[in-house]
Amino acid sequence: MSFSSAKFPVTRTTTPRTRPVDSALKFGTVFADHMLLLDYKGDAGWHNGRIVPYETLPMDPAAAGIHYAQTLFDGLKAYRGVDGKIRIFRLPRHAARLAEGAKRMSMPDIDPELIAEAIKSIVSADEAWIPSSPGTALYIRPTIFASEAFLGVRPAKQYQFFIINSPVGAYYAEGFGPVSIRIEDKYVRAAPGGLGAVKAGANYAASLMAAEEAKAAGFAQVLWTDAIEHAALEEVGTMNLFVRIGDEVATPALTGTILSGVTRASVIDLLRSWGMTVNERRITVEELLSAQRKGQLTEVFGTGTGAVISPVGELGWKDQRFAVGTGQPGDLSQKLFKAITDIQYGHAEDKFGWLTEV
User: Using CA atoms, how far apart are residues 268 and 242, in angstroms rounded to an integer?
Assistant: First the structure.
């Protein structure tokens, strides 16, 4: 039995929060008035869907998600367009990715259509929280965690699905400015056969120490390398990686250790629609360094829901630092950022069918 109601009953808050002005918004520090909850327990399946005022979740200290990291999330955005309409960017793809991730995490099946309906419902409930200034959006965080109180190591039998919303500004303090990235050759984000291809909380916990050490050394984030040889490039921080070498744009292939990013897929679609060569393949540290020495490495950038496009102006490798191209955002990074955000805010036609109107 699965919960399939197209309407989630709404209990409105009686103590609405004060909404910050758009110019004060950062990333992930302010939360909207409501949250959506959906329960899973045994034969009842997913049930009791409801929208309630934002509140602290009751959780048993023995909840399996706390002890064994059986947690999964996704992140997407709703935009207030120049015409005032509310649109969610690539909702079906995000819903499908969360449902696929649940299988890898040994969580119960959840219908992507149910996820999408839940997201539309909570966005509608918190519509007043969607900012309208350029560069702002409503960040949506659907999450599933094991809530069963049980300390044995096995898939849990009870789960909580929830969605919270956060009005956001720029992901990086630098905005669209270039960031400095250190190529990581010690720590590992994900290994073959692991959880790297899904948005499991454990992946992000594994990344924290390397990121903190990089920041202490003057970098914004790390560029992850493979777990076996530290030779092949993988993700940049929490984003997918793209490099432009000569006439080719390349991104690491999805071999199981890299998240199938929604913005990554959008960038590939755009580049190919522009007639550009873009390849999903293995890219090594040595290839990157060699291209830089020859003057062929013109752009490096990350892609993700938070920042959309994050250009890299400087790379660090061991005790070396070197500029990427001119050290400033490249032409292609700027063109991609404008193309995607123009679609998101309704300045350009959505030829790809990426937007879902709420």
Answer: 10
Supply the angle between the helices 112-125 and 91-104 in degrees, to the nearest 10: 130
Tokens of 133: 């200034």
Give the distance, in angstroms, between the CA of residue 209 and the centroid of all CA atoms in the same chain.
20
- DSSP labels, 140-156: EEEEEEE--B--SSS--
Q: 100 — alpha (psi -120 to 50), left (phi > 0) or beta? A: alpha
List pLDDT tens digits, range 114-167.
Answer: 999 999 999 999 999 999 999 999 999 999 999 999 999 999 999 999 999 999
Give me the residues paired with residue 163 across strands.
36, 142
Tokens of 288: 């990157």
Res. 2: pLDDT tops 50: no
Q: How far apart are CA 253 and CA 234, in angstroms?
A: 9
CA distance 77 to 92: 12
